[in-house]
Write a structure and sequence with these properties.
577 residues; alpha/beta; Rossmann fold; Luciferase, domain 3; GMP Synthetase, Chain A, domain 3; 3 domains; five-stranded mixed sheet
């Protein structure tokens, strides 16, 4: 078990330097590309490369406190570029590289929105997208002062003479309360909320979270997660770098195309830890063929940590059943709950413990009451996201702000030593969620015997005849209907003037295109809801890949509802019963 980080190192750069001195030849980051020999950064070599990029940044006018947005594909030099930005007191912000499905105008609008709200100073990118970036620099009111192409720079630069004295002074004056990174909360639009975190917040968090997962020097993280998302950035980047343990980084888009890459990397690298959003369990179960698993062993893994959305019991079950013969242990399936605003995690299932789950009465749950019951048509399986980690406090409140006792459903409020200070340049959004030191998460859940269960987003709850219907329940039901692409479903509420209430609508992706087949599928979805006493009034059937995803890779209810109820609704089949 790794007990603590060095108390003398309160700045991340200092800690990275210390690790390079302690473990110069130990692997730090293993950069994976499909079909190629992995590139292996050691703690000493990555620091040397970071120093070279730091010199390049200083020569081009980057100053302490400047925000440097990196828009770079999966590249072995991304990591030392990121470290180099931090080493001179500037603030790195990892942003998503435009993908083929993202229109150039949409990408530019996103960067433009971030520049005006987040206050981006410099864009570090690739020449291939320079034409998309350049108009943003000359645009009126843009904060962006210029763009660089660091992948084209020399890689053996050093601070020397007067430059070395000046940069040493800068580093010596960096305080633990100074910002170390800017990350954007998950969302589907370019105007994602900017979260600025300090050295202290990040280091306190990785220390507490490392304890929660029983981190040891023998651990090795394997990840395909994007580094522009808090789960990938903190759990699979800052955490291992701080503790001096290796991490294997896989290209997110390669993983989407070839999900077996994660399993191959775990097997070959003897990985022990990985974090996965819930939908990834479904993909790994459904999209990996048996012939891709020849020679695969997952016995080294001690934790697959389900995080980023409410944990689905079915996803855990099908994943375990598929991969137990390859060495997956039941107690290696773990869970966590967190968000960018608290750096990363708030709760975690203790290492080696089987995830706790409860069968609860669905009708009572819709009324905010947790009633344990037998499994059956009118029950819901709630899966725990674990216990509160050190440095965090959680309480649950009702609509009037009153504290709720155990077994009652309400909004989760969080207090943490790693809590953000507010959304940068968003005082109105900050005041809406930060009150008296508590962060109002917008998530609904309950506590039972010290374990926390997250069941949905407050803004997504559908209120039907006074009862709260959680869209996750509806989506699970529809996903299990034959003909629906599993996991490619969203549910939301539409106002009904006739009922004076909301009614449940479902959007489901399907490969079925003929009229009779779609009519049958619609009825099957509605019947599936009826068996669980859920009345689905409208079904919209859409083709594969129609649903818009959030930056975390999940179908977005808000964005898809807006798309569906706008002009695009004419392009899909709607049936009401």
């Amino acid at each position: 078990m790794i007990k603590t980080l060095s108390k003398s190192r309160e700045i991340e750069w200092d800690l990275w330097v210390e690790n390079a001195e302690k473990y110069p030849d130990k692997e730090a980051i293993v950069h994976w590309v499909a079909g190629e020999e992995p590139f292996r950064w050691t703690f000493s070599s990555i620091l040397k490369a970071a120093e070279s990029f730091a010199v390049g940044l200083k020569k081009r006018g980057v100053q302490r406190g400047d925000v440097c947005a990196t828009v770079i594909r999966h590249n072995k030099y991304f990591y030392p570029i990121y470290l180099g930005i931090s080493s001179i007191g500037a603030i790195p912000a990892a942003l998503a590289y435009p993908n083929p499905r993202l229109h150039p105008d949409k990408f530019r609008q996103g960067i433009e929105g971030m520049s005006k709200r987040s206050g981006l100073d410099w864009i570090l990118t690739e020449r291939e997208i320079s034409e998309m970036i350049e108009p943003l620099i000359t645009e009126k009111n843009s904060t962006i002062r210029g763009s660089f192409f660091p992948l084209e720079w020399e890689t053996d630069l050093k601070f020397e003479g007067k430059e070395k004295e000046l940069i040493n002074q800068v580093r010596a004056n960096i305080k633990s309360s100074d910002p170390v990174l800017l990350q954007h909360s998950s969302g589907t639009t370019g105007l994602q909320k900017p979260v600025l975190l300090s050295h202290k917040a990040v280091l306190d968090h990785v220390k507490n979270y490392g304890k929660a997962i029983d981190l040891s020097p023998n651990d090795k993280i394997v990840s395909w997660l994007p580094l522009y998302h808090d789960m990938g950035l903190i759990a699979a980047f800052h955490l291992p770098l701080a503790f001096g343990i290796p991490v294997v980084q896989i290209d997110t888009f390669e993983w989407i195309m070839i999900p077996s890459l994660l399993l191959e990397a775990i097997s070959k690298e003897k990985g022990t830890l990985t974090w996965l959003p819930n939908f990834a369990y479904n993909i790994l179960t459904d999209k990996v063929h048996d012939e891709e698993l020849k020679g695969i062993s997952l016995e080294s893994m001690r934790m697959f940590i389900n995080c980023s959305e409410p944990v689905r019991d079915r996803s855990n079950k099908i994943f375990y059943e598929r991969y137990k013969k390859y060495g997956v242990k039941e107690n290696s399936l773990s869970s966590s709950y967190g968000m960018a605003e608290v750096t990363f995690s708030t709760t975690q299932t203790p290492a080696g413990e089987i995830i706790k789950k409860l069968n609860v009465d669905r009708q009572k749950l819709s009324q905010g009451i947790v009633k344990i019951t037998d499994s059956g048509e009118n029950s819901r399986v709630c899966v725990s996201s674990g216990k509160v980690i050190d440095g965090c406090e959680v309480k649950i409140i009702d609509k009037r702000g009153n504290d709720l006792e155990e077994g009652r459903v309400g909004e989760l409020l969080i207090k943490s030593v790693s809590l953000f200070d507010g959304y940068r340049n968003y005082p109105e959004k900050t005041s809406a969620v930060l009150k008296d030191g508590w962060y109002y998460s917008g998530d609904y859940g309950f506590c039972y015997e010290d374990y926390y269960y997250i069941i949905g987003r407050k803004k997504d709850i559908i209120i039907v005849a006074g009862n709260n219907i959680y869209p996750e329940d509806v989506e699970d039901i529809a996903s299990n209907v034959e003909g629906v692409i599993p996991g490619r479903v969203i549910a939301f509420g539409e106002n009904s003037k006739e009922l004076g209430s909301e009614q449940i609508s479902v959007v489901a992706e399907t490969k079925i295109s003929d009229e009779e087949g779609q009519k049958k599928l619609t009825l099957d979805i509605i019947k599936a809801g009826m068996t669980d006493d859920i009345s689905i009034k409208k079904v919209y059937l859409v083709p594969p890949r129609w649903l818009i995803k959030s930056s975390a890779g999940k179908p977005s209810r808000k964005a898809n509802r807006k798309r569906l109820l706008g002009r695009s609704r004419l392009l899909v089949k709607k049936r009401t019963y």
